[in-house]
Sequence to fold (1035 residues):
Amino acid sequence: MQQFPCPFCGPRPEDEFRYAGDAGRPRPGRDASDAEWAAYLYFGRNARGAARELWIHSYGCGRWIELSRDTVSHVVDGAKPMNP
Amino acid sequence: MRLASGGEIDRGTPLAFRFDGADLEGYAGDTLASALLANDVQPLARSFKYHRPRGLLAAAHEEPNAVLDLRHGAYHDPNARATLELLAAGMELRSVHARGTAQRDALAFLDRCWRFIPAGFYYKTFMWPGWKWFEPAIRRMAGRGVVDPSYHPRAQPQRYLNADLCVIGAGAAGLAAAQAGLRRGLRVVLVEQRTRCGGTLLWRSARIDGEPAMRWVAAVERELRSGGAEVLLCTTALGLYDHGLLALSERMGDATGGARERVWQLRARQVVLASGAIERPLLFGDNDRPGVMLADSALEYLRRYAVRAGERVVVATGNDSAYAVAEALQAAGARCVLVDARADGALAAAARTQGIEVRANERVACAVGRDRVRAVRLASGATVEADLVAMAGGWTPLIHLYCHARGRPRWDAARGAMLPGDPVHGLAVAGAANGADSLQQALEQGVAAAGGAAGSTPRAEEAAFGWGGEPDIAQAFTTPRVWVDLQHDVTVKDVALAVRENFSAAEHLKRYTTLGMATDQGRTSNVNGLAVLADRTGREISTLGVTTFRPPFVPVGMAALAGADRGELQAPLRRLPAENVHRAEGAALLDYGNLLRPAWYGDRETALARECRAARTEAVVLDASSLGKIEVLGPDAAALLDFVFYTRISTLAPGRLRYGLALAESGGIFDDAVVLCVSPRHFVVSCSSGHVAAMVANLEAWREDRFDLARVFVHDATPQWATLAISGPQARRVISALELGIDLADGAFLHMSARDGVFAGVPARIARVSFTGERGYEVSVPADRCAELWGRAREAGARPLGVEALGVLRVEKGYIFVGQDTDGETMPQDIGMGQARLARQDAFVGDRSLFLPAAARAGRRQLVGVSALGEAPLAVGAHAVVRDGASERSIGFVTSSYFSILLGRPIALALIEDGAARHGETLEFEHLGARSAGRLVPPCLHDPRGERLNA
Fold:
């Protein structure tokens, strides 16, 4: 089990968090094309290696966290609040 | 045979035990294995496939054979590992897997059929008429101990620990690492699977800093304990997971009176793996006979338990480390013959001076004897009498945890071992596990791994040690049957067969032959298997790769993994505040999504009809305390709710309620809720009981994503308030008897509005809302007043209503349960709520999905009512089938189904393709082969105009 450095609570086990998708992918507006909206809904980046991810500290402070995490080595090298 | 003195055992404390019915005696400090060996019990097990007699190969976790059924008082372990379990008085041991006992096994004849059952014979032989016909008999013949279903192991809660440095293995390298870490001020945990610290120093003579090594061991252990380090003995590291998380298994003996194993979760910033190396068997004919043992293990039995494993010993080796074994056994009274594959040398000369016969340039060709070794035949043809063959085929470093951390081992041809390759973050490997060539090097590596100063390393002197190089397979093909994997009965021939059939990659070989797939994970067999594979395929071992090691390192009991997480502690049941009142009313309490709710009251047969009739003709009271009461507060509260809900909320006037849907971003219905506007800055979301946590999470998620956190706040007040729903034609009379201090006249208190009142001196909120289609009120009071409110409502004439009757009433009205009558694809327009989709221009969750082509296509499944034509209700899940060319297909399914007392016939809700346009059609419904018919009707079958709400 991984350990994530919550900026509000300190290091906490992974199972307190819920994954919430890639960071830096804005929600398209109503005028988005079908393809843009489908990409937003269903096509995550699923990066191999360095990734920026959103996690919600559901069983802790409830805040959204943006993690810099390597999806292969699982090394976490940074966490900041998404909505400071 | 037990020596008269020596060892760690306590001769003052004899322990009586039984093995396969025989009364035996051991001493405190014995393992099951050492006690059995001292009593000369051979064989003590039967092999997995051929039912060959087996004895002890090893003295610790690498032992493949000695798995026994252990009973001790109430305790039962069907697969006790004899080399790890400590002996206690009164233990009842039985051999497993034999039909009869290990010494007399009715299935022993299988060994004579060996030519017909090589590796892979299952796949070829049991194909026709089908594996399932053979499986039961084969399962009975294979397998190990048998679980006793009546035995429930006691729970031992897991323990959790954090450390700066965790050292695995308390041998020389591990102790040096732990000491260096402690001296650096780190919080140190030292994990040792044996009963004492010391590792090989417990049985191999050495001197550290000029003194016997065990003095140094004791001094370091004292320093660690007094310095605050945690020393966990009898504890095995099971696995190393992400970010330094270690799972440990602690064997607790019978000290706790039941639970004998405890799992720890340890998070360490730095891990030092000093797990040492185990000896590798030699490949010669019948090398699985009882009496063929690893040389190092024979020495451990001798030194730690004072058990001489044989009287006439052949020590077979190709490296220096076996000489100390031969000398120790000779000194303990055995007659040793050393068979060394190498040329004569100085060590041989020294051994001869102690009376040991040394045969250089010689190998063991095969063992002779059936239930135990009687002699060995040498490659030269000579025969040497022996009752113990101590073999030293080289060393295998234990780098499993390095592999768990995704380290890739590399083959070291000079040492003949898989050693750690590139370093892994947060993990250092030290000592024999890292290929150390001497005790001195092991100590140095230990100190360095923990970041200690090089100058602080103690000085060591020891007997000769040698790695042994690549496996010696010179004798592997000279006799018909040479064992590679003892626990899974895989022979050299099986490996050769796999290669002939082109299963020549290491991973394919493993799966074809099951080599290395037993509970010992091929600890003693993998490297020999690779050597044979390399030989048969003409490749180098270094090119073959290794199979993956996965946790757990040793078998771990399910009971220990579960720990205290059982029953209600595993999945805690939520309970209603007035549960005792419901019990007193005769409620049947059932589990609805981890919530214990009254299903019905009184006699099951008549309850449903009685409760339904009361709801339609009198007044009923339902405990709806589990309904969500999520407060959304602040200037942006309405904006947040508008965004999260499909139904617009911001237009709600204070004091009014609105039924609304919330969607997922995919456009599917996420939940439905009744939202109350207390004031423009204060709303209360009353969502379904089972969705409260998800709704709170959803509101919180979007709040954080899109809103100023200072301007809107979400608070879940569900557990603080109890809610009773009172409905029926007489509901207003019941409510007025509660004396809530509000005007109940219909003109002043409209349906879908709420008022604040007072109940018996405490605040109460009264909402006019209906789950049944009848006039309805929901009264919410502080949770601790629920029982009182219930009692008053009952006195005023309301009859209790359970969840099951509520189901009938809501289906009569066509009211849905989200998640039961909808699935992830159901959009608002599929349940007749498409208006907002067209009306709203602003952003809300799922907005764009409602206009994807999929949302508008023909053939969407839509909510309909079904009037069943038979006597019995349709089955929930029954499929509506239509003819489609030559075959049939499903166009939807039943989601809720009941017998309606009110209508006198079975009714249902269903999701049917284009269902809204099919009202009046009769369809066939199929469930588990049976068919019945139903006519599609509008979902609401009772009072479609809603006149009863004000009746």
Remarks:
- The mean pLDDT of chain A is 92.
- The first helix of chain A runs from residue 34 to 42.
